[in-house]
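Just scan this pair:

***
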Amino acid sequence: MKWVTVWGNAPSITEHKPETYAKNITLRYPITCAFGGEKVRLQFSNFCGTEPVTLTKVTLARAMGDREVSLHNARLVTFGGEESVTIPAGGEIYSDEINFMIKPRGVLAVSIYLSDFTLMRTGVVATGPLSKGFFSVGDCTFSSVLPLDKTRHTDVFYFLSGLDLYTADENRAVILYGDSITAQSWADYLALECMNDPYNNTAIVRKAASGTRVLREYTCITYESYGLSGEHRFDREISSVSGADTVIIQQGINDIIHPVGTDVNPFRPMSDLPTAEQLEEGVKKYIDSAKSRNLNVFVGTLLPIYGWRTYAPFREELRNAFNDWVRSLGDISGCIDFDRLLCDDDNLCAFAASFDSGDHLHPSDEAYKEMARLAFDFIKGQE
């Protein structure tokens, strides 16, 4: 038996708004477990916080629906035996181990009550068929159903950064590392591909944050929610995943499309634009770090950007140069060529029409399903 992370997100900086503080609310996150286990532990993060955060009460229960849980065998989560815990600014913690039997594809709901004013700065947006969140007014940690009139949906996952199961030795985690493309639904579709395999032993753990770049990060409040650079993300995020043997890296497009010049935007200078060699070196550091942790490494090519609002031929040349380098890598487990999968056969710079979400940067839902099927073939081939 061993600990394996079955769900996770990448703690990042939430958008700075006047309503940055919350009080007297309950967050509830249903989490689908790829395989079964007999104990649970939870990971919480205040990595991007600038002041301490107190979790007043946390509960764990079986989910019966989006807003509903079973209170039979519901558990109060403790931290060093205590009901409440304060996470310092920049800090990350584990809960105590919780005896809780869960079957494959079972859904656990984590409910977090914040009684006092809490800086909601550490969180990440994640979407997809398995990524749901809710918040309610008041302490609803032991409410079987969140009150409809006091509850709203949220796609921001605050503070909760991982769920680990104590499970059979053959089970494992595969990490997906990236930006908004991975923060959207192909991660969930890949998880479903794995769970639909009757012999599944793989959990998909998403470590992705929208707007993030390999080489740069913003310090202004206008764009700080675009997240941390790879230097401040990669090692910390992959090392937080227990039982992982593989990482799939799909990042770099924001390094190419963000810089526009200070005459257009004072926070996005053209000096931020990397050369192909600099971008390659940044990803090579990821690869070396992952391999030093005995992880198998797959790297995905960057997707088409023709028609995106900052598209330009020089950006296309940079994207193609980087993708050619990824395809030539000989010291990784494989290149997953998402670019060739989704591009238009008559215009390789563009998405095929059915694979474009409409913004010419993010794939459509159909395309995300295709990405998941392609990635599944690669990770299934490892078994």
Q: What stands out?
A: The chain has a mean pLDDT of 97. The longest strand covers residues 37-45. The chain has eight helices and 25 strands. The first helix runs from residue 180 to 183.
